[in-house]
Amino acid sequence: MRTLIDGVRAETVSEVLDLADGLLSANHALAAAVLAGGALETHLLHLCVRNNLTWTGEPSIGKYDGAVAQARNEGTVTVYSATDSKVIGSWGGIRNDAAHHPTKFARGVDDVRRMVDGIREFMARVP
User: Fold this and answer.
1) Which residues contact 20 (CB under 8 A, 6 or more apart)?
2) CATH second-level architecture of 2-125?
């Protein structure tokens, strides 16, 4: 049953990234960044829940990544590398800029396309 649930969740997150691709095709980088960040946040939540990791405060990309980093540093479980955490932090920053400072959002379609592609690759490598 868990495999089925994981498959449905992965497909749903992938569909959100497909929506971001569509927005990028229409030159809507800001909206695509918000959607891609939401897909990443959902995937990180899934990784935390599956690995019994906890976080404090409001859920976010940073909180989930912090829970993974804490487990990695304590030697409890390695979900992904410290280098992955750096990239995730960058993607989280792009998403936060788009969602919380839309009038100052300075990323173009190419930047957000790299973000979407990177999230897809990360999700495939760390399912």
Assistant:
1) 31, 32, 33, 35, 36, 39, 112, 116
2) Up-down Bundle (1.20)
pLDDT number for residue 100: 96
- Which residue, 80, 74, 15, is CA-closest to 48? 80
Tokens of 61: 């990309």
Average of per-residue pLDDT across 61-75? 98
Quickly list H helices, the chain: 2-25, 29-50, 61-74, 82-100, 109-125
Which tokens is 62 given?
């940073």
Res. 81: pLDDT tops 90: yes
Q: How many CA atoms lie within 13 A of 121 on its CB side?
A: 9
Measured between alpha carbons, how far is 73 from 63 in angstroms, rounded to an integer?
15
Residue pair 37/61 in contact by the 8 Å Cβ criterion: yes
Least confident of 8-12, 31-35, 87-91, 106-110: 8-12
CA dist., res. 98 & res. 92, Å (int): 10
